[in-house]
Give the backbone structure.
Amino acid sequence: MSDRISDIGEFGIIGRINDLLKKEGFLSERVTLGIGDDTASFLPRPGFELLVTCDTLVEGRHYLPESISFFDLGRRAMVQNISDIGAMGGRPLYALISLGLKPEIGVRDIEEMYRGFLRELNSLEAAIIGGNLTRTANGLFIDITLIGEVEQGMAVHRSGAKPGDCILVSGFPGQSAAGLHLLLQGQNNPRILSHPLVRRYNTPSHRALLGRAIGQSGLATAMIDISDGFLGDLGHICTESRVGAELFKQKLPLSRDLLRAAAELHRDPYDLFFGASDDYELIITCQPQNASLLQAVSKEHCPDPLREVGRINDLPGGITLQSDTDGDRPLVSSGWDHFR
Amino acid sequence: MSDRISDIGEFGIIGRINDLLKKEGFLSERVTLGIGDDTASFLPRPGFELLVTCDTLVEGRHYLPESISFFDLGRRAMVQNISDIGAMGGRPLYALISLGLKPEIGVRDIEEMYRGFLRELNSLEAAIIGGNLTRTANGLFIDITLIGEVEQGMAVHRSGAKPGDCILVSGFPGQSAAGLHLLLQGQNNPRILSHPLVRRYNTPSHRALLGRAIGQSGLATAMIDISDGFLGDLGHICTESRVGAELFKQKLPLSRDLLRAAAELHRDPYDLFFGASDDYELIITCQPQNASLLQAVSKEHCPDPLREVGRINDLPGGITLQSDTDGDRPLVSSGWDHFR
């Protein structure tokens, strides 16, 4: 059996991927044409809007090849797209996978990457229906387009937050950033890959089922997933909704793991919480009287509670941190920027 | 005004692209959410299947950066996707643009690339509704996902060719390959970029309107666009339809430009015609009694006639070249393979 892509060629590897998807992937009966033609095709469901998103992982930029398996890389690339569909209140349906590959990559590595994709898609009854393979000279890239659906008019946008709304957050933001810093600092430590926060960085979870349930409740005024960091993504809600926000320092969910990692890294845990971190948690806004209802919805889908961490106000663009002990101070909303 | 992406950052360039699309792009009223949220969304039309395809251009691999403008690069990247939708008999609707960029690229270069995308999309009333920007260390890539629609059950697949069917081809395949060879050979000649075949390689046309008309006629049994080369793509029809093909050497459309270029390049013009070449012409199969009807359909959309060049037979996998002067010989179906 051949071992490298260059041994079996483009059509060889497409055949192997196709076989794997037929055996191990979810097959959707609304797909009228899968891999192997000029396009794929499917029948949309009446009464639903379609959601489309794409996201890319670039070797050396979004992941360190020596620190992650191909299986986990596949999971991670898919999670970031599933997370976007979930943050609209939608359900993922179909993925297109565009890969830039070096010919010396092993065929089994590619198969493992596809198993990583399927690990995330199968349980959601979502299917890979197409894609593209191309050769790169310099490092791998994975670009995924994910198509989802949501009942017409039920998508939760970033732009709906109103002054007076509560700000809720799922889980414990900042853990992914802490994991990345631990990984970079501990590159010579073989056990670093099993650190819980490094695992969180390498193989994050999504909150798509929670996002879907929140969307279905009709109670959220805005929602976003955290991929640019808590402050960056709350900033996106503020910009798109033309509002500002106040955060309550003592209510921010800093996990024990994060506090421990911050001490080890000699960093302020709040910097890790607020800064660039792709945690794929959700930030949600709602009218105050609906906060406890959304927290009850969350309990069914998420082991960690949905926490109320602040309020939306009518001061566009500003985010303020209120503290019982230190008074108020403005925060600078600076999400992850690829080009600075 | 800033000049490089690194000067205005990721959100700066997203803002500039968004402004450009609002001013210069087609706006579809079925798009319920455009750029600026976790996903884009649109309302599909009842009675239509959706078609999805993606294709990538990688710097140095699919194009030579010093030989093509950003505007033409945008056109070319979009044409290869439009061509795929057209080859199904569909109509392009929505594009997602995923770019891997170096921070030193000029903002105006990116705007020119988007103008190239729009040059191809606007006349088809198709819109850019989303995408992703990421940073690469090593060269640009453009990955486009294009979504189209076709009346339910009217898509023309690769798999429908039957023994006895005619094989038709639009235009003059091989010209793009000749253009690429001329470009590679004439890199020190500044006038080489205005050679008609080099123009064909750098800024190919698509036959999407022809493909759509052929699909609507209901007369084609199979259709494919030529992106792997004539023989490679006819080979895809044969494989998917489990048939073989005979080609008539004296009927193959070799353009005068191709013959002249072949002489200049000291190459067999038939090698250029058959081999890897992304001409974005269409190969169509149909029952013999429908060939002239399809040729009449073609006249309305295409200056060059649709030529009958062979027959489908029941010998799966084999493609034979029949010649009045040299007898028959088997051809090896070897399309463009990125990894060999």
Observations:
- The mean pLDDT of chain B is 93.
- The longest helix of chain B spans residues 5-24.
- The domain at 7-151 of chain B is CATH 3.30.1330.10 (60s Ribosomal Protein L30; Chain: A;).
